[in-house]
Design a protein that fits this description.
Rossmann fold; 16% strand; 285 residues; two-stranded antiparallel sheet; 8 strands; elongated; single chain; alpha/beta; 6-stranded mixed β-sheet
């Protein structure tokens, strides 16, 4: 698929969701057909899980939003699980919050189907045909809710603290393969660390910043079997009230910030798959 086709697909998904009132879809995740029949033990753990973390301190444009929706939509498949979170800073109303999460229905085996009573088999077939579609709607709509809750006037972003705290949960999560998809400009601005000076993004020294973060015990531990993807690093909103020189984030500063996060996540025992600066070109695998 070409980049133009990919962008068009993402914009179509975004456009459809914008036409749907948010109140139509409750964030509770639709139960799997196995759970509805009391057969959850037949599928105890998901094969793969994706954790989507959306930074609400950044008011992303439709290009980034549609790309995020497209990537997650393409990742969804039978037997997988997705959890969607919003975060920004450690202030009331802006804490890290789980919006939704659940599992996509597994493809049933012939053995499972053949051993169901006729009434249960009919019920299972009806629910199984709908569950994936309903689940996808809840996931994408929850992401859209997170994006719509973004506020550019939030001046602090606790990315490090958010990642550090959620790493323990992800480490313990029972799944064969785990992935983290961060949609953020990755411009840390908190008491832990700040990539700003006098309201401008500074040229950081990655190793020095990492040492300072480590000294505050803010390095996570994901367990070694987690893949990390980042969309939006260095995303920069032009402020017409500022001089042109301040509306430009040069490649050196972007590279240093990307280098910091690569080293941070590597030290947190993950595999960094792609860092989009700001756009990702690969898929979530």
């Amino acid at each position: 698929m070409s980049s133009i086709q990919s962008m068009r697909k993402g914009l179509i998904i975004l456009g459809i969701l914008l036409l749907i009132p948010l109140r139509l879809f409750a964030n509770p995740f639709p139960r799997t057909s196995y759970e509805a029949l009391g057969q959850r033990n037949m599928r105890p753990y998901p094969s793969d899980v994706l954790f989507v973390l959306i930074d609400q301190s950044v008011n992303f444009d439709n290009t980034i939003r549609s790309k995020a929706l497209e990537l997650v939509s393409d990742w969804i498949a039978d037997g997988r699980a997705v959890e969607v979170y919003a975060f920004s800073s450690a202030v009331p109303g802006r804490y890290t919050m789980r919006i939704t999460g659940g599992r996509i229905d597994d493809t049933p085996t012939d053995y499972f189907i053949d051993n169901l009573r006729r009434s249960d088999r009919e019920m299972f077939n009806v629910m199984h045909a709908r569950q994936k579609t309903l689940a996808k709607r809840v996931i994408l709509n929850s992401m859209l809710q997170a994006f719509n809750g973004s506020r550019s006037e939030i001046h602090h972003t606790d990315i490090v603290r958010t990642v550090r705290e959620i790493s323990d949960y992800i480490h313990r999560y029972p799944a064969g393969t785990k992935s983290v998809f961060l949609v953020s400009d990755m411009l840390e601005n908190s008491q832990v660390a700040s990539f700003y000076y006098n309201n401008r993004i500074r040229a950081i020294a990655p190793d020095r910043e990492l040492a300072a973060v480590a000294a505050k015990n803010m390095i996570g531990d994901f367990g070694g079997n987690v893949k990390v993807y980042i969309l939006g690093l260095g995303y920069y909103t032009v402020d017409r009230t500022k001089p042109q020189s301040e509306n430009y984030l040069d490649s050196d500063r972007i590279s240093n910030i990307a280098n910091f996060w690569y080293k941070y996540f590597t030290r947190s025992r993950t595999v960094v798959m792609e860092i989009g600066k700001p756009m990702m070109f690969g898929a979530l695998r």
